[in-house]
Design brief:
240 residues; two-stranded antiparallel sheet; single chain; binds zinc ion; Rossmann fold; 7 strands; 35% helix; 15% strand; 2 domains; 5-stranded parallel sheet; alpha/beta
Length: 240
């Protein structure tokens, strides 16, 4: 029955690559040509924060970047599917500003794939909240759109109510230190019961300096979270 239904959907609306509109086998999948244009993050990478290392670097099974080796990360794990570059930007920006839902499956599937080998146990999935003023203007939170299929994959609770965010001016092109200061104190845990003793996975579309994840980690640990993980579709990779 499901097969017949899928056949009808494919017949009426054949699956196409969301980037270039070429036909593909499954709805939401990229065609092979577009797939190779993304800079997917694979090994070797920092075992803790997912920072990608040059391909020829052999640092063992669970290598750490200098930042994590110094114990500065705080989160249990951070992963991102790909590097923020012209290709990922070309689907990120429309996804952020207009309702470009055609990219949702591609992005959330890539995020699930980059978490698979960690075999995480997740209780609650928390999309990074938007300040109410921004949410009202945009009409939707892109992180929540990505988080829903991820919560389903982990069989975890999707929580859009336990956190709130104060409105602050856009950070623009500030330094990592300025971003960290700018985001400090903007998140409030409204419902501690849903955080205490829970393993939390934070979801965002892009990781820039990590300031948002670090601040959320601080706030969630304070509220009693037993583990904090974070995943983004892409991340800005600075030289370290
Ligand atoms: Zn394509
Ligand atoms: Zn690291």
């Amino acid at each position: 029955m499901v097969k017949i239904f899928q056949f009808l959907i494919d017949f009426i609306c054949p699956p196409i690559c969301p980037v270039c509109d070429r036909s593909v086998d499954v709805h939401g999948n990229l065609c092979s040509a577009c797939w190779t244009r993304f800079n997917w993050i694979s090994n070797p990478k920092c075992y803790k924060c997912g920072y990608p290392f040059p391909a020829d670097l052999d640092l063992g099974l669970k290598p750490l970047c200098p930042h994590c080796a110094a114990g500065e990360c705080g989160l249990d794990f951070i992963r991102s599917a790909c590097v923020y570059d012209d290709m990922s930007k070309s689907i990120m920006l429309p996804f952020k500003h207009v309702s470009q839902l055609k990219y949702q499956t591609l992005m959330s599937t890539a995020m699930i794939n980059c978490l698979r080998d960690l075999d995480l146990d997740v209780d609650v999935v928390l999309p990074v909240p938007l300040a109410y003023k921004r949410l009202f203007k945009r009409g939707y939170n892109q992180a929540a759109l990505l988080a829903r299929p991820i919560a389903k994959y982990f069989n975890a609770e999707m929580d859009v109510d336990s956190l709130s965010r104060k409105y602050k001016q856009d950070m623009g092109h500030k330094s990592a230190k300025q971003r960290r200061e700018n985001v400090r104190g903007v998140f409030t845990v409204k419902n501690t019961d849903n955080i205490r003793d829970k393993k939390i996975l934070i979801v965002d579309d892009v990781m820039t300096s990590g300031a948002t994840f670090y601040e959320l980690n601080r706030v969630l640990r304070k509220a009693g979270a037993s583990a904090v993980y974070a995943v983004s579709f892409c991340r800005v990779v600075h030289a370290i």
